[in-house]
Amino acid sequence: MNNRRGSRRLGAALVAAATVMGTVAGTVLLGAGSAAADPVSLTLTYKCPFPLIGVQPITVKIDADFPKSIPVNTPTPELDIKTINTVGATATQGLNLVQAKTLEGTALADAAVAAPEGTLPVKVPVTLKKIDIPASGEFQIGADGKTPSLTFTKPGEVKITVGDLLLHLVPRKADGSLTGLGEFDSQCTQDAGQNNTLATATITPGGGGNDTEAPTAPANPRATGTTNNSVSLAWDASKDNVGVTGYDVYNGSTLATSVTGTSATIGNLAADTSYTFTVKAKDAANNVSAASAPVTAKTQGGGGADTEAPSAPGNVRSSGTTNNSVSLAWDASKDNVAVTGYDVYNGSTLATSVTGTSATVGGLAADTSYTFTVKAKDAANNVSAASAPVTARTAPGGGGSTVKYGYTLAGSSFIKAPNGTTKLAGGIDAELDLATAKYTADLTLNPTTGDFKVLGFLPVTAKVAFEQAAKTTGSLTGGVLTSSSKVQVKLPQVSVFGFPISNSPDCGTVSPSDINLKSGPNFDPLAGGKLTGEYALAALKGCGGLNDFISVFTAGPGNTIDLTLTPKK
Questions:
Q1: Residues of the chain above pLDDT 70, percent
Q2: pLDDT at 8 over 70
Q3: Chain centroid to CA 170: how far?
Q4: Which of 85, 186, 229, 275 is the most interior residue, by most CB within 10 Å?
Q5: Residue 383 bridge partners (DSSP)
Q6: Are 406 and 568 in contact (CB under 8 A)?
Q7: CB 222 within 8 A of CB 89
Q8: Residues with Cβ within 8 Å of residue 175, at least 6 apart in sequence
């Protein structure tokens, strides 16, 4: 049941992926149209790595309206877009497994607008509308958005293409708390060889080519943050008769940076020093506004540029495997300013980069060992030393919805006949079918010792060993975990008043015990929990001359067991 802590990130990402991709692609790309619009449609496939369920294929169909022609220097209106995507039953089961009742999040889409002026890469954040997750089967998820306004300054052709997608997803329980998945990212990669052009249009001459009106000056300039070598600024958007295309930020009289949005960070500054900044807006006709009011900000002390690397990530561990992926987690690094992300290496090859403390590396071969390291980095591109390596082996087979997970277990068993308690410890490693929520597992119980009072006063000590007689089976449905195990119980040594009366490795029950366990409601497979149950002990055999005497005081029903499961690390 292998920490699958990060590995319980299950189907939450899978559930949201199609919707967010369709929404973001539309939001980023469908906003060009002052002329009559024509319907356009594009279907794309992606590979999205998700912990536990591994790399999954996602298909996205985008439908929208897009104009055939756009006049030069004419801003396009914003357009409303809608997407509806169908989520598969396996992903639904994965979400229910971790008791997720709602799903929400954000996405950051890669897109490109290729025009005569050049190609503009675009990253646009979109909010995924909160949805309720059904108990089973497929369900549909929709999202609405608005396209941005675009303005083109030269005649020619514009082409809109759709790229990769980064999802940030938040599944929640019925009470609003996070599931064991927490908040997590999934970087989806578009399959190669596809036509990813959503639409093309002709930019026609005319339509405002003699624009001579400058934008208004940016208002409310303000410092939003400082470090020892940088100042972050923000301001209110300017207005223009056609459209603002960007802003120039000045450090005194020197141009420090140019941006398209209403915020910027100025770097490479001296520590403990005051700087005065102004901002000017500009439009497509290169009309420039008056300068904003000046804003003064002082960098923090600390000796100049940040040259200190973060500490190496600690406790790197495999948190889940499938036949084609390995999920990893680690403890956060520390930095004198702030850690901004982590690079995960498969051997010497960069496998993925993330901002959090977990990642899933996909595209791996089945039944193969891989060694991973992780490096932390900060905003100044200082990179930590590599973490200690961790080796993980992908699962065998051809994939599907079967995944592996594991727990350690600890607890005790009260044996009714001799009126005593035996401590229990061990582990269980299972393969779970997400589609059915059923699993098979290998159960390991460590040898232990029990102290009993036979007839209420006779002190008996027994060494106890356990052998798995058959695979453990069970299910996790409706938030309740059930488990059925067959265990052969052995008593290799039995002593009374400290004197051995049986010392035989063959001493054990004539038949295995059926141990049926059940959790309470709302069992969280990511956090573990408690299981309880009852079982019977069969009569003994192979215990020597006192076999029948020992058997009388051990065999019988009404024995209880209490266990606590903890996800393996």
A1: 81
A2: no
A3: 9
A4: 186
A5: 377
A6: yes
A7: no
A8: none
Beta bridge partners of 289: none
Residue-wise DSSP of 233-267 = EEEEPP--SS-EEEEEEEETTEEEEEESSSEEEE-
Q: DSSP alpha helices (H): ranges in 7-86?
A: 12-29
- Return the structure tokens found at 316: 């790197």
CA distance 433 to 437: 5
- The secondary structure of residue 507, as a DSSP letter, is -
**In which order are the strands placed within the sheet that holds 314-321?**
314-321, 326-331, 358-361
| The two structure tokens encoding residue 195 | 């036509």
Extended beta strands in 267-325, E state: 274-283, 295-298, 314-321
Could you tell me the two tokens for 364? 């791996």
Determine if residue 99 is left, alpha or beta; phi over 0 gives left, psi from -120 to 50 gives alpha, anything else beta: left
> Considering Cα of 178, then 180, then 181, then 184, what sign does the dihedral take?
positive
At residue 159, the 3 state secondary structure works out as: strand
Question: For the chain, how many residues are written?
Answer: 569
Cβ(111)–Cβ(150) under 8 Å? no
- Which distant-in-sequence residues (6+ apart) come within 8 Å of 406 by Cβ? 1, 2, 3, 4, 427, 428, 429, 430, 567, 568
Residue among 92, 85, 104 at smallest CA distance from 22: 85
Token representation of residue 450 = 């029990």
Residue 359 and residue 7 in contact, taking contact as beta carbons nearer than 8 Å: no
R_g over Cα of the chain: 32
- Beta pairing partners, 60: 44
pLDDT, one tens digit per residue, over 281-301 is 988 777 899 999 999 998 887
The whole-angstrom separation of Cα 449 and Cα 412 is: 11
Residue with tokens 């369900």: 139
Burial 391-421 (b: 16+ CB within 10 A, else e): ebebbeeebebbbbbbbbbbbebbbebbebe
| pTM beyond 0.70 | no
Residues 338-349: pLDDT tens digits? 888 899 999 998
Do 267 and 251 touch, CB atoms closer than 8 A? no
- d(C-alpha 322, C-alpha 399), whole Å: 7
> In 10 A of CB 279, how many CB atoms?
26
Q: What are phi and psi of 73, to 5 degrees?
A: 60, 25
